[in-house]
Structures are given as structure tokens and as C-alpha cells.
Amino acid sequence: MGSDTIYDFLKFPHQPYPAALANEILKHRKTPLIDRHQTPLASMGSCFAINVARWLRERDFNYIVTEPPGESSANWDRVFSTACIRQIVQYSFGRFHPGVRWWMLPEFKVQDPFRRNVVYPEDGAETLFEAHRKASQTALLQSQVLILTLGLTETWRDKRDGATFYRVPSPRIYDPAIHEFHLQTVQECVNDLLTAIDLLGNRTVILTVSPQPLFATFRTDVDVLTANEENKATLRAAAAEVARCRSSVHYFPGYELVTRVIRDPYEPDGRHVRPTTVDQVMDLFCWMFVREPA
Fold first, then answer.
1. Cα gap 234→247, rounded to integer Å
2. Which residues does 225 contact at the CB level (< 8 Å), separation at least 6?
3. Which domain does 254 fall in, by range?
4. Is the whole-model pTM more than 0.90?
5. CB count, 10 Å around CB of 160?
6. Closest Cα to residue 52, out of 132, 145, 128, 138?
7. Would you call the peptide bond into 69 cis, given omega within 30 degrees of 0 as the criterion?
8. Which residues, at least 6 apart from 72, have a Cβ–Cβ distance to it below 8 Å?
9. Is residue 145 part of a domain?
10. What sign has the CA pseudo-torsion 59, 63, 68, 70?
11. How many domains are contained in the chain?
């Protein structure tokens, strides 16, 4: 009777880890969800999501835009955290009512604490936001496929009600009794995404993780490189868990393609991806999800 060896696992279905990494490794599952010119697509997320939206629009996909400037399907700008994704979906359907609605600015203007680079005149803010809310709801309802790019677990929020800001409050208004830094856990990210997805109903959702590293970290317990790796690992684990929990959710390994396969994927700053990198990522996206190649 022979003894077991370390190679007995070869008797079971498996994928060996290759000596050389190539795009073909990621082409193990094709899930045609999108007709290029017909399926209504929307997208939301962090900085890399802007590349996704631009690429789809330039190649005549049926990409929904209900508000300018068109870098996302509505005027959400860059949405960095899962908490902010959840809040956007919630307010689109009248389910998000934060205690502080505006940050006051000089010259009778206000800033939306929950969206990047959105400033309104104080006397018209509520009307303008309501127009945005309707445009946001329309974009979400019209989409059949929603692409979400996850970027950050480092957040800033209001201690009193947990409302998560799009960024750290300005030093002009920062109050340590009110504002706090919060590092999200895997479970918190999972809960955010499931809440948003369940509100969306029967939408198909494609999750991916931004390959763009942190600009900086607010953590003092670790260095920025370690903080970045933990940040991405948390989001990657959350995306996997959500995809396991909901059959309508699919994971797209753009992050793995950029960080593990593509050679020299970043611009000289080491953070922003090259246009050729975006093309390779979206080529894989089309292979996986589009019925007709782009």
C-alpha cells in the first residue's frame, strides 16, 4: 500500500500557479451580460472608475449619463468608499437623511459633504440637490448593469450619526468632538454593498477594486505601503463575499490584472495607470462580460 505524497492533490481538479503570469490566466470564466449597443450601463466609484466611464463612452457602449460632466452616470464625481456608495444609493431613493446636510463656505455658498467638488449657492442648494437626486435615481433605475469600483476603506465620518463624508473635513470646520477618522472593516464594506445592492433590486452589479494606490494614509500605526495593501485586501475580500452572497453580483479582476500581470502599468508617479493599461483592463472586461467584442 503506497504512502501519501505531497503530489496527491493532482488527482483533484485544480489550477496550478504558473511560473509566468499572462492575461490568459484570468480568462477562465466568460459571463456574457452586456450587449454593447443595447444594454444600459452605469458606473460609480473611485478614480479608476473615471477611466472605465470614459472608455465605455468613447466606444459607443450604451452608457447612461443623466447629468454632466459625464465622468460617471450622474454627478457623483469620485466615490471612494463603500459607505459613500451606500449613501448615494440611499439618498437616490429618499433613504439617507444626515444631521448635517451642508458644509458652509464663504460668499454664501455650501459644499455637499458627501460628494466631491459639488458646491451650490446657499439659497438654491436644496432645489439643486433635489434635481441631482432625481438624476441619480434615474441613472440607477435605467441601468441594467452597474459597475462599482471600490477604492478606500479609510473614511471620515460624523460621530453623531455615522454619516460618512467623501473626504476629511476642511481644517476650517474640523471639530474633533464631531468628526472622526474611521477605518472600515471587511464586514462593514460587505454590509454597505449589500444594502446598496438590495435597494437597487434586480440590477446586475459588477464589482472591481481600483488598482490605484492610496494618495496618502491618515493612519499613524503603519506606513503608507502597509496601509495601502491592507486597504486593497479589505476591499477585495469584501467584494468576494458580496459576490458569494448575491447571484446578481460578479467580480471583475481588473485589480489583479494591473498589479500582477501587466508590466509597468503606472505613469511615472507610480499611482495613475497608463492609457495602455486601461485598454488592457477593458479588453479583459469585454472578453468576460460583453457578447460582442469591443
1. 21
2. none
3. 30-95+134-155+185-289
4. yes
5. 12
6. 145
7. yes
8. 43, 44, 45, 49, 50, 53, 79
9. yes
10. negative
11. 1
Task: Determine the straight-line distance between the first and last CA of the chain, rounded to whole angstroms.
Answer: 56
Helices (H), 64-217: 82-92, 125-142, 186-200
* Residue 164 within any structural domain of the chain: no
CA distance 34 to 290: 5
Q: Which of 162, 156, 218 is nearest to 182 (CA)?
A: 156
162 domain-assigned: no
Per-residue pLDDT tens, the chain, 294 aa: give them: 455 677 787 788 888 888 888 888 898 889 999 999 999 999 999 999 999 999 999 999 999 999 999 899 999 999 999 999 999 999 999 999 999 999 999 889 999 999 999 999 999 999 999 999 999 999 999 999 999 999 999 999 999 999 999 999 999 899 999 999 999 999 999 999 999 999 999 899 999 999 999 999 999 999 999 999 999 999 999 999 999 999 999 999 999 999 999 999 999 999 999 999 999 999 999 999 999 755
Q: Is 263 helix (H, G, I), strand (E, B) or coil?
A: coil
